[in-house]
Design a protein that fits this description.
This protein is mainly α.
Length: about 280
């Protein structure tokens, strides 16, 4: 009964997203071969032994895809958590506190957003070591500017509502107003933005890896796999298209789930308001 109430598109998105998550969590258990194992010849075609063929070094593409899911999703999730926790808290605080704090934070964010994110990331990562921790911090902080703008805009509208004014009159502190009054009522737009930010983080990571400044070999991630096998496209070898298809499939499925969650939370709010 529960699944019948989920729209078909959202259900497909949930299933695909869940499969990718399970593959990422249990990668070491379900991958047919080890991460760097040379299992066959270079760019072998699809076969029962190698369902997706082999890559430019003869490694099993299915195994690399599974390990790549673990790396890509892990980094994208942590970068999204960092961007949301940083951007939302600073955005809500700027809207509630106002004054010089709001002005300074907004000008810093405007400055960061004026620089193309990919170029900024490339410059920073060309100086810093390309470790997973560095990638997460750089991606999370650069992406937090978008979350800050959305959070500040939503919080500014909510900050003048009657229920917030009533909390201030009761003598509630600013942190109470932010977390108990504004945050619960800002969840709908933030939930939708959460899915988009995760997709953006995954695409940003893939772009960095494709350019050589993301996840470093011998670790596997989907953007790096596209880079490793791009030369095979000239010879009609689809090895680079498989991780690219995985990136597209996960991005579309997460977007379908985010849209459904947004519509559901909006409908629930509307139902409570009518009651």
């Amino acid at each position: 009964m529960m699944f019948r109430r989920i729209p078909p598109g959202a259900l497909i998105g949930l299933v695909i997203t869940a499969l990718f998550l399970l593959a990422a969590i249990f990668a070491q258990l379900i991958a047919p071969h080890r991460l760097g194992e040379i299992a066959g010849a270079v760019w072998e075609p699809m076969s029962p032994r190698f369902p997706f063929g082999t890559d430019n070094l003869g490694r099993d593409l299915l195994s690399r895809l599974i390990y790549g899911a673990q790396t890509t999703i892990f980094i994208a999730v942590l970068a999204t958590i960092l961007s949301f926790s940083t951007g939302a808290i600073l955005g809500f605080t700027a809207a509630v506190v106002g004054g010089w704090f709001d002005t300074v934070m907004s000008r810093i964010v405007d400055l960061l957003m004026a620089i193309p994110t990919l170029i900024f990331g490339l410059v920073v990562l060309s100086v810093l070591p390309s470790t997973i921790a560095t990638l997460i911090i750089v991606m999370g902080l650069l992406d937090s500017t978008r979350v800050y703008r959305l959070s500040r805009a939503v919080a500014s509208d909510l900050n003048v509502m009657d229920f917030v004014e009533a909390a201030k009159v009761r003598g509630e502190g600013k942190w109470w107003v932010i977390f108990a009054e504004i945050l619960p009522n800002a969840l709908s737009p933030l939930v939708s933005e959460l899915g988009l930010r995760f997709i953006y983080a995954m695409l940003f990571l893939s772009a960095l890896s494709f350019l050589g400044l993301g996840v470093q070999p011998p670790a596997a991630d989907w953007g790096g796999m596209v880079k490793e096998n791009k030369d095979g496209i000239v010879f009609g070898i689809p090895a680079a298209l498989i991780p690219a298809a995985a990136i597209a499939a996960l991005a579309i499925s997460v977007n379908l789930v985010a849209d459904w969650v947004l519509n559901r939370t909006t409908d629930l709010k509307g139902g409570r308001g009518n009651g």
